[in-house]
Amino acid sequence: MSLFIREAKILDPQSPHHNKIVNVLIQDGVIVSIDKQEHSADTVIEAKGQLLLPGLFDMKANFNDPGNEHKEDIRSGCQLATESGFTGIATLPNTAPVVQAKSHIEYIKSKSRDCLTDLYPMAAVTIDTKGEDLTEMLDLHEAGAVAFTDGNEPLWHTDILLKSLIYVQKIDGLIINLPEDKLLTRFGTMNEGIVSTGLGLKGMPALAEHLMIKRDLDILEYSGGRLHFSNISSAESVKLIKKGKKKGLNITCDVSIHHLMHTDESVIGYDSNFKINPPLREEKDRKALIKGLKEGIIDVIVSAHTPQDEESKKLEFDRAENGILSLQTMIPSLLSLKEELEYNEWIDKVTVNPRAILKIETASINEKQKANLTLINPKKKWKYDSSSNRSKSVNSPYYGKELIGQVSATINGTKQYLA
């Protein structure tokens, strides 16, 4: 099998062909030439005006399988990821049952074997993600878990965090924590501030995030190990992580695409599709997150893909579940930030960095390398509706709207998706 991509602009800071318009020939899943020459092939893609990136990788996605397959399952999630340009996804353990045993890891791997998108299960740090008792993390690592996290739940127990950081040092393992003091956010539904006061909704103070980050940094300095902060959302969090990195602590962090796009003012219409955790913060926080990406303080941008059914979202705002459907809108969202984030300021955050943090082989656009690629048409307009949606759920504020930027092809070795 051969594939010829004509006149694509390569965007890959790791490649000597970065920012060049070239032709790419792929033979049996391997890039055999990158040049200006014409080549014959079984399939030809006319890519003039399009962008060729290393395959996208998402470090935070909920696929709800097993337990809530009516919202999303591994099959639908994989197809959705493939058509959204992702060649790799790290899945959260917040399923039913929680991913905390070897058989749970094998279940995910077996159901995704035929998918173009590679799934990398993350396993729970604590049993049932309750934060009280450690799982058998070394066994889970042997079974294929790429990191350890309680996912949508914070590691609230100080001693548990300390012990887990020490425990996984034997395998140079990664602990991922959602920084949130749940006693401070209890019963909260959105960011605490002027907007929440005006709407009459109980707020979730950014302080709950800051306190947890301070605590975690102190524990990490004491214990050693590798720690990743998931879904940071405020200006103060960026400052704290910057200080921690300057001290030489082995820390990384990510931000969701939602917190780069929106603020708490989006909640003014009580649209429950904007109800997420951590909540959307103020404009000063959004700008600080953008700056954090530019300065390299924030390492990764995640989709935080969280499918919810209508029964979970079509409720009063304070009763609705958290989460936004976001894999399919990731590329249009990133492209819409072009006035604030140049291509070079986000490409590695969704391709190289998440793989490197998880110690997965990185993708690059070079000859003799496995073809792990995403081709994007940055000017393609499309409507996000029932005919184009690839998820089982519809909880997106973009549903029914026209978006700009679409994936033309996703290639992972010999597996190919062509739009």
Automatic annotation (TrEMBL):
Residues 49-237 form the Dihydroorotase catalytic domain. PANTHER family: ALLANTOINASE. Coiled coil: none annotated. Pfam families: DHOase. InterPro entries: DHOase, DHOase/Allantoinase_Hydrolase, DHOase_cat, Metal-dep_hydrolase_composite, Metal_Hydrolase. Transmembrane segments: none annotated. Keywords: Pyrimidine biosynthesis. It comes from Reichenbachiella agarivorans. This is Dihydroorotase.
